[in-house]
Request: fold
Amino acid sequence: MEDRLIEALENSSYIQETDISKPRLLVYLMGPYKSHPPYNSPHPDHGAATSRVTLDTALENLQTSDENFDVDEALWLLIEIKRKLRKERGINAFLATDPEISLHEMDAATQSIEYTKASVATIFIAPAMGDNLGVGIEIGSVCEHIPSQELLEEVLFLGERNVESSMIDAVSDRWHVTVDDFEEFDELYQAVKAHIRSVA
Reply:
């Protein structure tokens, strides 16, 4: 799966930054793709992790010349982390949709498990505005199929400070996954980089 992922990401229509220096340093980013309505963007001056100038600016940064992203803030946060890791660090960071492996070939739960096994690090990101129910289900599915030592060393869960979830509690208590929180985008990005440094 590792070699297949590397090849798929090189040819992915969702990734612009294909010329990276560490193609074998696979980092799987997980989190909600949709915000939980209703959600109002915080003012940029507040420094919240999910703030940005405007959605149009985010879209302009994310789009290639012939692609049209339908991105709300939850997905934007994941894509922005992915792009920064790829562009600034040369890390082969990706989301579940990036390899473009058909769900007819491999269902979503199996994809997440296999991507985690193939990756050097897997990072769950749960912003306060995200619709985190599906993320909780995916976390449980992944954790049940990964050896405990790998979960302890390679998997990280990052939740925004005002996120409350019994599934988040279970991640730490049942599976001993490292759990941390963040308040601002820079704090989140620094935590992601620190975890990758610790396992790479």
